[in-house]
Structures are given as C-alpha cells and as structure tokens.
Design brief:
Elements lengths: L11 H23 L10 E2 L4 E2 L2 H9 L7 H12 L1 E9 L4 E5 L5 E2 L4 H15 L36 H10 L3 H10 L2 H12 L24 E2 L1 H13 L5 H12 L17 E10 L5 E9 L7 E9 L8 H14 L4
Antiparallel strand pairs: 1-2, 1-4, 3-4, 3-9, 5-6, 7-8, 8-9
Helix pairs in contact: 1-8, 3-10, 4-5, 4-6, 4-9, 5-6, 5-9, 6-7
Length: 340
C-alpha cells in the first residue's frame, strides 16, 4: 500500500483516486471470476459498481445491440473448433466494464512472465538499487546451455554482457529466454517474482522455475501459472497505475509497443490503426500447445485504453498452438466491450 504524504496533502488526491479506481477494477474482476465455472460461462461485470449481471441480463443487453453479439457463445464455439480451452478477460479502463471467459482458471505463464520480471527490476532500481538498469551483467557461454535457440539477442552479446535495460528490451520485444532468466536473477529468482506479485496485491500469479522448464505444463499443473483475471489486473496496474514510477511505466509500455512476437495474436484481431503493446508466451506442441498474449490497446479518438488477456491450450498433447484463436478471441473481447 502506498504511503499517504501527510506533509503534502495535495499529493494525496491522485493517490486516493488511483486506489479507488483499482479497488473498483478488483471488485469487478472478483465478481467476474467468482462466477467462472469449468464449463466456461461468461458474466459481464461492471467494474465500477461491482455488479455482476446474470446470464439473462447479459442476453437482454446483447439483444439490444445491433449485432446481438454473445461473447459466451462465440468463445464456446471457438473452443470446439480448435479442440482446446480459452481463458480471456477484457477491461475497458474508460468505462470500468469488465468481461471474461474462464477468467479464474489457471493457465501457464510461458514467456509472458518476462514483462512482469522487467517491471519488478524497474521497481527495484527505482526504490532500492539506483543505477541498476545501467549496470552491465556478464555471463559465461556455458550458462546459456539449453537456451541459445530462443535467445536471439543475448547470444550476440555473450562477450560484452548487457544492462538490465537491454535485457528488458530483448526479453519483451524478442522474448529472449536467457534475458528473462537473467532478469529473474536480479530479483531473487522465480520466487522473487512471486514476492513481487504479492507486493502488488496479486495473490494468484506465481513463478516457480526459470526457462526452459517453466513451459512444461500439463492440465492440473499450478506451477508457473496465472489466471486471465489476475494477469489482466496486474498488467493494468503496471501499465496504467502507480505501482511503477511514471518514467518506468512509460519505458515498460514503450517496450511493449515495440514487441515483435505478437503480430499474429491480439494485434491481428484488431484494426490496424489501433495502437497495441503486448507480451506473448508459447509453450509448444509438447505442452498441449499452450499460447497466450496480454496487451494494452488504444483505439483512435479515445484516451482510455483497454487491457486484454488471452490464454489457450489444446485438449490433446503434441498439438501445435493456434494464433488465429487468440486473434479471434481479441476481436470478441473488443466487441463485448463495445469498441468494435
């Protein structure tokens, strides 16, 4: 909990407003996720009032829309079409509206953890280790064993090392695996990231292993997992809230906008003139084809972004993931929030 500045009461108004806004978002997500069932029903929740609309109320609201759009039905059919599971949450930060599907079910982080690890390092540098972001971190080639295949940038810097700022850029924009592991070392390893989650108020997300073992997932696994609701809320706090200093938040969002790995996922499901910053994660066919994406999205003419989180896995192991399913889910979330 941030400290109230008694000596400068004028500084407290923004803090109290921010705390109230996030409390409202949490109320909305709590109501949403409490209603999520294994069969996958979706409930539209007003995050400002915390009121969860019943299925009949949702149907009435949808029947009044020009398209009669039904998020629940769309995602159920999408799951059947690719023989898998979808978890998704959309938050409109302008209206406070929250929608979701399997919002409280666990899915593996995969490489998505890197954006949260980067945020934790930025926070540490700002609060307890000045200059950390510009200190050169060096390693030996042997330390990269098993990670050279998914570490395109750190492989090139083995002789010179990289700063945490460079590692954040590589981890977020290229999903560099060794960069992610090296960032974890700056905050006490996977459990250090879990402690960061708890400090931000996220009681759900957890990281237990580094790459590449953190991608090993089977149904029922809880290690290295989060939920669509928890990921969306924590991501919202980091990109729009006051968990991070204003400059660090802007830096993080800049890296997300420059991401090169998500072109066929959430970005592909939205109009090309929308601005998107995202972080993906992929477990591979041998891990039930798990794949995910979390994004902050700005639509033309609106100052209030959306946050979308989408997680998927196949029902059958040794089956590749499907980017089109993530893109279609993003489209559905945007429509459910009234942005399309």
């Amino acid at each position: 909990m941030p400290d109230i500045d008694i000596g400068h009461p004028e500084k407290n108004y923004d803090l109290l407003f921010d705390m109230t806004r996030h409390l409202r978002l949490w109320l909305g997500l709590a109501a949403l996720t409490a209603s999520a069932l294994m069969s996958g029903p979706v409930y539209a929740t007003d995050a400002v009032t915390g009121e969860t609309r019943t299925r009949s109320a949702v149907a009435r609201a949808e029947s009044n829309s020009p398209s009669g759009f039904d998020l629940n039905q769309v995602l159920k059919e999408l799951e059947r079409s690719f023989d898998g599971r979808i978890g998704a949450v959309g938050i409109d930060l302008g209206t406070g509206e929250t929608v979701g599907y399997r919002a409280d079910e666990r899915f593996p982080f995969n490489s998505m953890f890197k954006v949260f690890a980067c945020a934790a390092v930025l926070h540490k540098a700002r609060t307890s280790d000045p200059g950390l972001m510009d200190k050169v971190v060096r390693w030996k080639p042997a330390e990269m064993a098993g990670l050279t295949g998914n570490s395109p940038e750190t492989t090139e810097y083995t002789d010179t090392g990289m700063t945490p700022a460079q590692l954040c850029r590589a981890g977020i924009t290229k999903s560099d695996g060794f960069a992610g592991n090296t960032l974890l070392k700056q905050i006490g390893g996977p459990h250090g990231l879990t402690r960061f989650f708890r400090a931000t108020g996220d009681r759900t997300s957890r990281l237990d292993r580094p790459e590449p073992t953190l991608t090993e997932w089977q149904p029922g696994e809880v290690r290295d997992t989060t939920t669509p609701a928890a990921a969306a809320q924590t991501f919202t706090d980091l990109t729009t809230g006051k968990t991070l200093h204003t400059r660090d938040r802007a830096r993080l969002v800049g890296w997300l906008k420059a991401s090169l790995t998500g072109a066929n996922r959430i970005r592909a499901g939205l109009p090309k003139d929308w601005m998107v910053g995202d972080k993906t994660g992929t477990g591979g066919a041998s891990n039930h084809g798990t794949a995910n994406d979390v994004a902050i999205v700005w639509t033309p003419g609106s100052n209030s972004p959306m946050v979308l989180s989408v997680f998927t896995n196949r029902n059958t192991d040794n089956t590749p993931h499907d980017d089109k399913v993530i893109a279609s889910t993003a489209t559905a979330l945007a429509r459910a929030l009234g942005r399309l």
